[in-house]
Amino acid sequence: MNEEQKKIVAGYKTVGKSFPKKVSSQLLSGQPVFTDDITPSDCLVVKLVRSPYAHALVTEIDTKVAMRIPGVVAIYTYKDVPQKRFTHAGQTFAELSPQDRLLIDQRVRFVGDVVAIVAGETEEAVDRAIKMVKVKYEVLEPVLDFRAAKDNDVIIHPEDNWQALVPVGADNKRNLVAHAEDTHGDVDGIMDDCDVVLKHSYHVRPANQAMMETFRTYTEIDRYGRLHVISSTQIVYHCRRIIANALDIPKSKVRVEKPRIGGGFGAKQTVVTEVYPAFVTWKTKRPAKMIYSRYESMIAATPRHEMEVTIKIGAMNDGTIRALDMYTLSNSGAYGEHGPTTVGLSGHKSLPIYTANCEAHRFDYDVVYTNVQAAGAYRGYGATQGVFALECIVNELAYKLDMDPMELRMKNIVREGMTMPAYDNEVANACALDECIMRCSKEFDWENKKNPVDLGNGKIRAAGMALAMQGSCISNVDVGSCTIKLGDEGTFNMLIAAADMGTGCDTILAQMAAEILDCELDDISVFGADTDASPYDSGSYASSTTYITGMATKKAAQSLRTNMIKIAAEMLNKPVEELEYNGDGVYAKDGSGFVSRYDIATKSMCNNTIPATVTASHSSPVSPPPWMAAMVEIELDKETGEVEILDYHAVVDCGIPVNPALARVQAEGGITQGIGMALTENITYNKKGRILENSLMNYKIPSRLDNGRLNIEFERSYEPTGPFGVKSIGEIVINTPAPALVSAIAKATGVWHRDLPVTPQKILLNMDYE
Amino acid sequence: MEISMTLNGRKIKASIEPNTLLIDFVRAQKCFSVKRGCETTNCGLCTVILDGKPVLSCSILAARCNGKTVETLEGLQEEVAPFTKFLAEQGADQCGFCNPGYIVNFAALLRENPDPTDEEIDFYLSGNLCRCTGFESQRRAFRNYLNYKKEQEGAK
Ligand code: FES
Ligand code: FES
């Protein structure tokens, strides 16, 4: 930050301060605020008949017996649904994800794919009916190995009405969801000229978001005859469009509302449950509800894209990194949700970290269909996989060059003011990555911890490090909006369609509004989100809410402030130039008069033509990256292969943290999820393509005994295009644990693990006993 | 079948199916704080206090609670209020879905051990998963609360 920026930031009254969340007392006292708590329970229960095969055609389906079970109301099969294809991906139209879904398809494409929708008056009736639906399948050969999917003889989406709305290199006849090649500079020539060239492949599995509240949706016909959907979703507006597409009804017939969300992490950026009860309600005109079990959330939802990232790095003996060459193979599973977009981040949101000396880079990718659960959006969205590969190979390079990995990084990282060729030539306007590294190493005591120590009791202590980046929105796409109205007594209502899924956006956006309106945080009531009431917003994903919706909030607050002065001008009978707003109200600069916010609010409701409700929207041509550095110390047990995390230090440059307490919890939560992905969260399949880790019993997410001590600090930078200098924090924080832990494990054992998670079994099997 | 129990201090009688789980029973009694996060007794979201002991309400039949005393967060508001403030201060509520389970369990811990160490807290609450926070904010809040309580007692 320069001096001027420091001064601006020092002047903030509400932004940059920690406040409890707006909903704290409701959440902490266990009030009914989630979907299943606030919707009636005497509605139809909706569940699905699911395919036992990874790839098959439904040849016969008989629902007659099942329909005779008392309480069963409706059973729908592929014969009953609209035949226009659509996507479940919550993205701005025209979606980059292919239109490859039907509500129910005759072809089932993974174990768990939908075969029939069953609705009934009780859960027991529905469960019985599911067992009584008689299905005959023609079992087809599945494609289970994503490395063999492209141009395989088995085609997963042979249908003629499959459609890619945007040219992303997709070709359903080749099992391709997306493909691209992109080279800057003479990559091969420079590689030839380098002293050291390393090339390795890194494999990340389809980790599950495992938010504590599973997917759930309630639907009813409202008093205007429209479809009213209450769902745990991050994307009310996209959700509305997708439901209308699935049911083939006008979008104007659908209203989507979200109550509190019990965690999302990207999972709820894809429509998972919504379309099924919506279809039931639209057909039967009766209220309906679908609550996903944990089992369903594990086997038929929308996890991270499995990726194998092959990366080649060219460097000189002094550590100068001159060329980067990345190829990502991404597994989209049975459907293409978020396939063409996640893969892009594996390169675009990793390679720019090493901008300083990089003369050439290449980034190619393929995204393929296979017969496993479709992937989707998960915190980090492809950047996680790319950063894992890049940061691992940089650590391996340091090892090869016998250099301190921290020094190697200080020599090559992007610095403030640099143009980043691997990031659409955007300029790093705000970048404190160097300060993040220095501060992290100091507080972690890298100098004394970087070399492994054999403790003599069968245990080794070792340390590892990693850097990370992300974006702050989808540039030129995301739209954020905010409506603020002046209400009775001079307090404010803020209406948004960004979705607080635990992230705290209700609170931090209100802090921004309070900063401009110069009022107490409690003077602002927040409402979100409802497509009938909230202004348009793409929704909460791509780390965009603080940066994009934040700017919309700032703009809305500014114009409301201006309008309040105008209303006051009429009241005081003075030109606006002679008036000033000071938070309490508007006063005449010459001291001749004052009207309070309360008075202005009252006036706004009587003989007034100046809007006391304003809406503003925002989009951005750039997506400024947040940056971070992290270091971890572990104790590895040579007898058991167990890794204990002792100490995790991370320093994040998210611009200006709006609410440091909430930003810190974001970081701690993201790091812990990253630790799970690195060490314990495994996904494997049996020969038939069935997922084995299908519950929280065998899909092991970290408990409070597993994540060591986390120490988070912030290095502030000031992003000139963001409101109040902010960037983002939500996603970047999941990216460092895997590469940092892998390098610590390598220091302890001499083995570089390139396949996550690094379980004790893998460590023992590969232990280098020399 | 008919059962009666004391739920949050109130004597209730109800007719239930023999296979009704306690979690479904208390939610039907409008104790919506009790949440379900799994089917395998791994998440701890459904924690309630049965005759003074914390239990997973997803793994107990309501019928087994006949004649017993059940407390959910709805009935523990006064008991937990002194420490939930500290959770709010740390932003430890996050999405909030896991909060009732670990708050009830922490209240149960305090009844057994009014001055637990950090290790004792971690151990006691280890069955209460949270996917949002990484647990550190909860630790800070509990520590701040316990320190505050000691200060208050010292001042007396
Ligand atoms: S619901 Fe998960 S332990 Fe009871
Ligand atoms: S706060 Fe979301 S699961 Fe704990």
How would you explain this protein's 3D organization?
Chain A has 770 residues and is α+β, with helices and mostly antiparallel strands. Chain A has four domains: 3-31 and 475-618, Aldehyde oxidase/xanthine dehydrogenase, molybdopterin binding domain (Aldehyde Oxidoreductase, domain 4), CATH 3.30.365; 35-140 and 209-299, Aldehyde Oxidoreductase, domain 3 (Alpha-Beta Complex), CATH 3.90.1170.50; 143-207 and 303-415, 2-Layer Sandwich (Aldehyde Oxidoreductase, domain 4); 439-466 and 624-770, Aldehyde Oxidoreductase, domain 4 (2-Layer Sandwich), CATH 3.30.365.10. Chain A has 20 helices and 29 strands. The two termini of chain A are 49 Å apart. The mean pLDDT of chain A is 97. With 156 residues, chain B is α+β, with helices and mostly antiparallel strands. Chain B folds into two domains: 2-74, Beta-grasp domain (Ubiquitin-like (UB roll), Roll), CATH 3.10.20; 76-155, DNA polymerase, domain 1 (Orthogonal Bundle), CATH 1.10.150. Chain B has helices at 22-28, 77-90, 99-112, 118-124, 136-155; strands at 2-7, 10-15, 47-50, 53-56, 69-71. Chain B has a five-stranded mixed sheet, with helices on one face. The radius of gyration of chain B is 16 Å and the shape is globular. In chain B, 51% of the residues are buried. Classes of the chains: A alpha+beta (770), B alpha+beta (156). One FE2/S2 (inorganic) cluster binds at residues 36-38, 41-46, 56, 58 of chain B.
